[in-house]
Amino acid sequence: MSAKQVNVADKTMSYTRYERARIVGARALQISMGAPVLIKDVKSVEPIEVALAELERGLIPITVKRTNKSYRREAESSESSG
Questions:
Q1: Rounded to 10 degrees, what is the CA torsion of 64, 68, 70, 71?
Q2: Half-sphere exposure (CA, 13 Å, Cβ side) for 1?
Q3: Using CB atoms within 10 A as the burial measure, which of 4, 15, 65, 82 is most buried?
Q4: Which residues pair with 66 in a beta bridge?
Q5: Dist CA 82 CA 74 (whole Å)
Q6: pLDDT value at 69 more than 90
Q7: CB neighbours of 7 closer than 8 A, spacing ≥ 6?
Q8: Which residues have CB under 8 Å from 73's CB, separation 6+?
Q9: Mean pLDDT of 38-53
Q10: Is residue 43 predicted with pLDDT exceeding 80?
Q11: Domain architecture of the chain: domains with CATH
Q12: Phi, psi for residue 76 in degrees, rounded to 5
């Protein structure tokens, strides 16, 4: 599985495996608690697999904030910017 790459401020960033785990886990919890599924052709009923499919398609509206080496905040959004 390749990491989702997002273009923010002319930089291409990808999620770390920890960010991916956090995003998928949070979304799977939402789905298991009754949140609507964002994809139509669901092949599985398992919340984790549905959340992974949503992440791979870029459908989860989430912003990841991280601190870079110079301690400035960077934002990475899973939504396309154009």
A1: 40
A2: 14
A3: 15
A4: 74
A5: 19
A6: no
A7: 81
A8: 65, 66, 67
A9: 91
A10: yes
A11: 10-77 (3.90.940.10)
A12: -125, 120
Structure tokens at 34: 């009754």
Is the pLDDT assigned to residue 20 strictly greater than 80?
yes
* Structure tokens belonging to residue 50: 């549905």
Four-point Cα dihedral 41, 64, 17, 30, nearest 10: -40
- 63 bridge partner residues: 77
Record the tokens describing residue 18, joined without a space.
Answer: 């920890």
Tokens standing for residue 9? 């401020």
